[in-house]
Specification:
With 304 residues, the chain is of the alpha/beta class. It has three domains: 99 residues, NAD(P)-binding Rossmann-like Domain (Rossmann fold), CATH 3.40.50.720; 34 residues, Sirohaem synthase, central domain (Double Stranded RNA Binding Domain, 2-Layer Sandwich), CATH 3.30.160.110; 100 residues, no CATH class. It has ten helices and seven strands. It has a five-stranded parallel beta sheet, with helices on both faces. Helix 2 links the parallel strand 2 and strand 3. Helix 5 packs across helix 8 and helix 7 runs antiparallel to helix 8. The chain starts with 13 loop residues before the first strand and ends in a 5-residue tail after the last helix.
Length: 304
């Protein structure tokens, strides 16, 4: 079965977490970060959850779960180590049309929580439909090594430019945006911390259709008319202009100077090839096989 990935706005939405352990604490922290209205139903809480309750950031119901605790809830989370309680939460959720997530129990889940990487406004979610949370975590850790603070800055710059263009009733299509965001000049300016210049470069690229061949160098600010990280002109086409090699998008390197040229001349002893190796003496052929009575009879050799 294929799941539908979705990002939810949980601002002021009632979310009920059943359980007061470490798993519940992680769910509560994520829900509070999303602006949800959180209720925790559990006879006891971890120290972290107790602090949230003391600060009135969550509403604590200090008892076991009961039918009716999901009333008016938008989401419910079953996080106890008691299967009967988790089953009751899932059953009541289905009856009341409340989506339920049961920790480590895909069969009782209406939705699954992905592993998440956040860089500013950029959020990347990785899920396996509940089949392998460990794999989702491994992929998330690999993405954490790849995504940097520069990606967060790029998301901020793109959001600013998009708001400006929409205010002017301009709406470049998705392909134009993708090409503009891949440009090496934009990425280089982001890496250098020049966000204002990056915004201007992005505006210029979008104004010219966000195609490298349609953005002549004279249309770019002076700070942008310089070689890219690969030594190519920003207005030319190719990987350096479009930023197709993602591993180098935010690495600024000086252009490599051309190698000095020398006129051809006679080879010196230092550059001459080594003399050929002496020929080896041919090895002697192997001795003939020992003839035995068995071999003589088998091969038909003449009898000595």
């Amino acid at each position: 079965m294929t799941h539908f990935p979705i990002f939810l706005d949980l601002t002021a939405r009632r979310c009920v977490v059943v359980g007061g352990g470490a798993v519940a604490a992680r769910k509560v922290d994520a829900l509070l970060a999303a602006g949800a209205d959180v209720t925790v139903v559990a006879p006891a809480l971890t120290a972290r959850l107790a602090l949230r309750a003391a600060d009135r950031r969550v509403q604590w119901v200090p008892r076991e779960y009961r039918a009716g605790d999901l009333e008016n809830a938008d989401l419910a989370f079953a996080t106890t180590d008691d299967e009967r309680v988790n089953e009751a939460v899932a059953r009541d959720g289905r009856a009341q049309r409340v989506w339920v997530n049961a920790a480590d129990d895909p069969g009782r889940c209406d939705f699954h929580l992905p592993a998440v990487v956040r860089r500013g406004a950029l959020t990347v979610a990785v899920g396996t439909a509940g089949t392998s949370p460990a794999l989702a975590r491994v992929v998330r850790e690999e993405l954490e090594d790849f995504l940097t603070a520069d990606h967060a800055a790029l998301a901020e710059v793109a959001a600013d430019v998009r708001r400006e263009l929409r205010a002017g009733n301009l709406s470049p299509d998705g392909d134009a945006w993708a090409a503009a965001l891949r440009r090496a000049d934009v990425r280089r300016l982001i890496a250098a911390g020049h966000l204002d210049e990056a915004r201007e470069a992005l505006r210029v690229a979008l104004a010219h259709g966000a195609r490298s061949s349609e953005a002549p160098a004279e249309a770019l600010p002076d700070t942008l008319r310089r070689p890219t990280v690969d030594g190519a002109d920003p207005a030319s086409e190719g990987p350096a202009a479009t930023g197709e090699h993602t591993a180098r998008l935010f690495v600024e390197r000086p252009p490599t100077p051309p190698a000095p040229t020398t006129p051809p001349g006679p080879m010196t002893p230092a550059t001459a090839p080594p003399p050929p190796a002496p020929m080896r003496r041919a090895t002697a052929p192997p001795p003939p096989p020992v003839r035995t009575r068995t071999n003589v009879a088998r091969e038909g050799w003449p009898h000595p």
